[in-house]
Amino acid sequence: MRKPAGHTIQPPDLLPDVMNPTPNTAAATFLAFDGVVKAYPGTRRRALDGVTLSVPRGAFFGLLGPNGAGKTTLLSMLVGRIAPDAGSVRVGGRAIGREVLATIGMSPQEPAIYPTLSARENLEYFGRMQGLRGAHLKERVQFCLDLAEISDAADRRVEQFSGGYKRRLNLVIALIHEPEILLLDETTVAIDPHSRSLIHQRLRELHASGVTIVLSTHYMEEAEQLCQEIAIMNHGRLVIQGRVEALLAAQANDTLVLMLDREPPLALLARLQATPGLRDVVVEGRRILASASPQRLGALLELLRESGVEARSLAYGGGSLEQMFLNLTGAEQEAA
Predict the structure, then answer these.
(1) Which of 7, 145, 200, 268 would staple 264 via disulfide (CB 3.0–4.6 Å)?
(2) pTM above threshold 0.90
(3) pLDDT attached to residue 143
(4) CATH code 3.30.70.2470 region(s) in the chain
């Protein structure tokens, strides 16, 4: 498959700002799930329960939800691994078939790589599986090695790679055939900060080049930074879908974000959760997220001082995906 026109990745300093894109109200539906139902044998609850979801062409789309929400099942349907029991899945108005699958690349949650082969050999193998041959294959392999910044380890066996290098290779294997659509299932889970930063940058470049990206992640901050539009799922159903800035603007009311001077003691979370006027409290490293009335800010800061930490910055009244996620899916559930 030849690269579609306009899908050339530009140097980072020439890329447009995709962190805060302007809404494209004329964007047509590209990926469409219509009333999709899926139930697995031996389970009481449907994995997907009548999901209707649309993704515009060229979008950077985030798919969020707790464990078992149905995110991986949706992505698996797009690559033909799972068929719906009812409803339809279409790409560009076409049912899933060989021609559609040739336009899609997927980076699964568990790296789909051969550990006893080198990075170069893995790329060559998957490239041949996609019909690449000869000079074109050689060119694509080197491009992917450079894109992932693993050329220095190209001929080492993958079993010797760090987790970050494996994730980088897993990503570019999905890109070997120059797909129009990139599906990412928890692609940055459990990797080092440098590899995560590199992958984020490459995803921005790919999106700016015209690739439609669907990202399933349990990192709310990652989705907020990268995605134009998100959908939140719960128990196999679509809870909400919309553009990130619009959803956050609608949520902006009593959201509090505190950055501390150090990580707080473990006992602080329990004290915060027991404090009247504070709701949906989340502690992430040095960051605290909560819903709070303005009258409780003074008591909150005093509580922090009593615990031996102080606030370095405080933002109030803005929305966050973290808070929206907790409000819509329930704080007791573990994100996935």
Answers:
(1) 268
(2) no
(3) 98
(4) 253-318
